[in-house]
Amino acid sequence: MFDFIFPSPYSIISITAIGMVFGLILSLAKLKLKVERDPRFEKILALLPNANCGACGQPGCAGYARLIVEGGAPITLCPATSGETVKKIADIMGIEAEAPVSRKARVHCQGGIVITGTRFIYTGPKSCTAAQQVMDGFKICQYGCLGLGDCIRSCPFDAIHFNEIGLPVVDTERCTGCGNCVEACPRGIIELIDERFDVYVMCKNEEKASVMKKGCTVGCIGCKRCVKACMEVFADNPDIETAITVDNFVAVIDYDLCINCYRCAEVCPVPVIHPTGRSQKKAQSEEGE
Known about the structure:
The chain is an alpha+beta fold. 34% of the residues lie in helices and 10% in strands. The chain has helices at 9-33, 39-47, 61-69, 83-93, 128-132, 150-154, 180-184, 209-212, 225-233, 263-267, 277-288, and strands at 103-107, 160-162, 168-170, 190-194, 199-201, 244-247, 250-253, 273-275. The strands form four sheets. A two-stranded antiparallel ribbon has the order 1-4. The chain has a two-stranded antiparallel ribbon with strand order 2-3. The radius of gyration is 29 Å and the shape is elongated.
């Protein structure tokens, strides 16, 4: 048995007094060393989407806003901000606004579940990255979408969803061009493209048509009809021969030269060259009118 010894009143008073003194010192230090936050920081942070997607190179919108205020970052790094928002940030900073280039994600594949063949049954984690580690993926096509949703889970703006055949489709109205889906795709079939261009190739297969068709029925066959049609468009332009070529048996669009004439999409026999969702909605609207 141990006898409990109560502390003396003098000890309690001494400890309480010491605590009060240290508390007062810390309070005075806090007031003395307080750093006033630049009022522009809160205003800019309120204009940013606060999705913390990391597309600007910072871990979050607060970090990006801080860099803007400190003068170390351009005001156009956030792909989710509109031109109007950029102008507001420029007004806050007292600088000239630069027109941001808006880019949208494009999926270069249309080989869904019932369209492409498989080499074996994959039973691992529901992850494209994990599936790719197993014998380079379970699909016969070594270039197409694996359809396990890494891109969908990586999107902070809920801009990608599976369609009825298990293929990721980008909602161009929601997409901000943050690039998360591009980084998440282990096969590199998603690309950010300037939204001003309305056509894109939905295939990345670099094999001959005879080999490609063993695993996919909707891939590019390298027929070069698109190239011929594009050359006809630029026939009177001595500086440009064509804006589309067939490299490694797959069509590739040069967006530095493309003029959105849609000729390549019109002549593609597969078809593997498609207009974007925005173009389709516009065409449907005009047809309705």
